[in-house]
Amino acid sequence: MLRYDHAAAVVGREVERARAGAATTQRVERVPLAAAAGRVLAEAVVADRDQPPFARATRDGFACRAADLQAGGLRVVGQLRAGEAWTLGAIRPGEAAEIMTGAAVPAGADCVVMAEHVAAQGGAVGLGEAREIVPGENIVPAGAEARAGEVVVAAGQRMGVTEIAAAAACGGAELPVFARPRAAILATGDELVEVAETPLEYQIRNSNSYSLGEQVRAAGSEPEILPIVRDDRGATERAIREAGGCDLVLLTGGVSMGKFDFVEQALVALGADFFFTGARIQPGKPVVFGKLANTYFFGLPGNPVSTMVTFALFAGPLLRALGGESECRPRFGMAQLEEEVRVKAGLTRFLPARVESDVRGARVKQVAWQGSGDLAAAAKANGFLVVPETTERLATGQMVSVLEI
Ligand code: AMP
Ligand code: MG
């Protein structure tokens, strides 16, 4: 039974391997820019020309020489709009060009004075009131953001809003992205029935296949929800074998010490290597991780909150790495604790919690719960407050770490 940070380090080691493997073996497909959202870039997007391609005015105003401004009025020699070429030659001492945001600053000028800061007298402009204007003001020099050929979005980056904008600016109408890994989802349990069925009194609806399906999708992969597996060693072995064509096998339930928990036994019988069997965490203590032939697997505990937390901590990062993503650690944020939390030391805890954030930061409060089967509490939560293994009390007002789901 590993400490949380040791278990995380074991996953981290496999994440490195999986990522290196994905970079060479994962299939690459080309998709239109608009379809690239959420996909992982397989080759870097490089600047196809200097950015900006010309010295760009960042304000509406007048392009001139900063040194001339203190002297008095400048003669306005022309007007320049964004998207227009300047044809009137270099700006000379004592001259200014009226210029709009996004236009190329003419040669000779070294600053743009904001329209709000000038006063016009006849055909001349000057500073409205005393103010220091330095060379370079309101100009982004050509190539200052990126030089032609420079990497703007690195391979391994998941395409979000900023990456899509940057790729668009470089002419990336079609982008090479890694194929999405496929994750098989196998829920085990004699008590489970499908969501649309009417359960008998002692039966439970299978929720894990659906929470995992969504977590897999959010990690950029394709879920394959397979039929429920009964608590039987042979049936479990067959189901695992059939799921082996996927990039990752996710099992839920059947990993505890009960007489009818067959997942570990089935994996042993199939010849699996185990990287860990159990971690000192709550929820999720019985989690197992390993590899069967070339396929990674996780045996996630069946309690629904344990399933989602162990996916977020361990399986999600590995799945992202299998998809070639370079940033795949679990996501933690900091928040200020609104109410004291007391626990027994000995396990790293991930307690359902509600985070509210605004421009000043985030505050977090634990959600009352009945333990790792309490989906109603989980549904009220939007994160999991982290209590380190050796901590018994987190004080009101303290900054604490929160796991994002
Ligand atoms: P297990 O890990 O198989 O011992 O299951 C622990 C608890 O989680 C039991 O109360 C199960 O009924 C419940 N459980 C197991 N699998 C699922 C599932 N797929 N959906 C919802 N609850 C489950
Ligand atoms: Mg079970």
Mean pLDDT: 96
**What is the spatial order of strands in the main beta sheet?**
7-4-6-5-9-8
Q: How many distinct domains?
A: 4
Please mark out the parts with pLDDT under 50 across 5 or more consecutive residues, or reply none. Answer: none
CATH topology of the largest domain: Molybdenum Cofactor Biosythetic Enzyme, Chain A
User: What is the CATH architecture assignment of the largest domain?
Assistant: 3-Layer(aba) Sandwich
In the CATH hierarchy, what is the superfamily of the largest domain? Answer: MoaB/Mog-like domain
Question: What's the count of strands?
Answer: 28
Distinct compounds present: adenosine monophosphate, magnesium ion
Spatial separation of the terminal alpha carbons: 24 Å
**Radius of gyration in whole Å, from Cα?**
29 Å
CATH class of the largest domain: Alpha Beta
Task: Outline the fold blueprint.
Blueprint: H1 4-25, E1 28-32, E2 45-46, E3 56-57, E4 61-64, H2 66-69, E5 74-80, E6 95-99, E7 111-114, E8 118-121, E9 124-127, E10 139-140, E11 151-153, H3 161-169, E12 174-178, E13 182-187, E14 192-193, E15 204-205, H4 208-218, E16 222-225, H5 233-243, E17 248-252, H6 263-269, E18 273-277, E19 281-282, E20 288-292, E21 295-300, H7 304-322, E22 332-337, E23 341-342, E24 348-358, E25 361-366, H8 375-380, E26 383-387, E27 393-394, E28 399-403
Parallel strand pairs: 5-6, 13-16, 13-17, 14-15, 17-21, 19-24, 22-25
Antiparallel strand pairs: 1-12, 2-11, 3-10, 4-6, 4-7, 5-9, 8-9, 18-20, 20-21, 22-28, 23-27, 24-25, 24-26, 26-28
